Amino acid sequence: MHVKDIMKEEIVHVDKDQNIQDALKLMKKHKISRLPVVNINSEHVRELVGMVTEKDIALRLGSSKYGNLPPSHFHVSTVMEQDPMVVEKNQSIGVAAKVMIDNKIDGMPVMNNYELVGMLTKTNFLEICQGKPFNTMKILERMKTDLITVSPSDRVVHARRCMIDKGVGRLLVMDGDVLEGILTAKDVAMAMMSFRKIVPDKYKNSRIRNLIVEDVMTQNVKTIDTNETLEDASRMMLENRFSGIPVDSDGVLKGIITKTDLLDYVVELEEVC
Predict the structure, then answer these.
(1) How large is the average pLDDT for residues 214-234?
(2) Can you give the pTM of this predicted structure?
(3) How far apart are CA 31 and CA 265, in angstroms?
């Protein structure tokens, strides 16, 4: 199977000179978390110049360097990753998946002879995680048990730093042994955006530093049982647009299963084939 068989051909993109508010609005409208960044040249051709994600925006808005600037002053070109990794449409899905895992990226623009023709994301791989062997492999066998957590009373700036240091896009929020919520890079980005819009400049830094996880996190988090299968997990992720699901057994948190874990399994299967 090749990238062209599973990629999304509809390309939602943003111009490098638009501001990050425009980028976030596009992400929200189309329910996506990353956008190719283009530059329209003199011949009115879209040139791929970067990629921007919710996580990029969250990390930049939370930095002290840009602490007092309003969102309208941030152009996409300030936040984007330049020279993003790309994949050719005729590349095998196994190779593409390994590139994404090795480089810790969730999506890549798809090219055909230097032309942007689609997007490949981890979500595209979920759609092929059906049937054997996905419906026989238990989540218990593939989930991560080394959990990165924060507490509801931790500051959001601390949680943001955890995301940076650990290279993750979500954190489980625990009060002792009880799962209280989940905090994602998107949650952080939207919180930072809201504060910068409504809080006067002279109060921005202190107010943002006092924002706590409980104010921003998603509550009433759905979980999945250790004895469910990878197919069950992929279906739940697709239906709810989740990137990761906490895993429990008899109400006790045991781990987390993510799109990356499913992608790892796809790579293993492709290597065997």
Answers:
(1) 95
(2) 0.81
(3) 25
